[in-house]
Amino acid sequence: MAEKPKYFRKLFTSFWLPALYDLWVWIGVLGHTKKLRENILKFIPQHPKVFIDLACGTGENSILLQRAYPASRVLALDLSERMLETARKKARKQQCAIEFSVQDATHTNYSAEIADCVTITFALHDLPRTQRKEVLKEAWKLLKPGGVFIVYDYHYPSNFFVRIPLFIQFFLVENKDAWEMLKENLELTLQEAGFRETKKAVYYKGLAQIVAGRK
Description:
This is Methyltransferase domain-containing protein. Residues 52-147 form the Methyltransferase domain. The structure is a single chain. A 7-stranded mixed beta sheet has the order 3-2-1-4-5-7-6, sandwiched between helices. The chain has helices at 6-11, 17-28, 33-38, 60-68, 81-93, 129-142, 160-173, 176-182, 186-192, and strands spanning 50-54, 73-78, 99-102, 115-121, 143-154, 196-203, 208-214. The protein has a single domain, classed as Vaccinia Virus protein VP39 (Rossmann fold), CATH 3.40.50.150. Helix content is 41%, strand content 23%.
């Protein structure tokens, strides 16, 4: 693979990242990680045969999808070899047959229109605006007509006190791109990228959101 992009080298090359990644997400959503991730199942299209999980990190969402749809094929990718090593260990422990690979979510090597559902969870906020748009283009390319793209990420809470733990996390470990996306209208962003029948749901006092759209 070509040299990793600059934003990736700044954020995701530390050896300790996989050990702390799940903890960061847990803190950011006040410990509701498992229940929050399960909400994504409400947005899955009927009878999915192929999932692609972009920027899969330590594999939590990939494993969720494979366990919920054991007959489906789950392709999971990430730029971080360290994160994927952790993801593979988790998948083996839970006996989940997931196809992991080192790839860039902005430009994968998969063929066009192979997926019924493309997901990206708690990862889009880490990318600069240009790369975020490229991820949406790639998701569009990968989806079959009628397929669904699902984004699960942080949301800007309206309650000041609810913002505090999220702001602490963002101050400690996130960059300016994450702060920028926190106030972005993701549903509008998906619509501008061509997705239709968009839906948005906000969870746990506004700490997290799911936005989905159909190709």
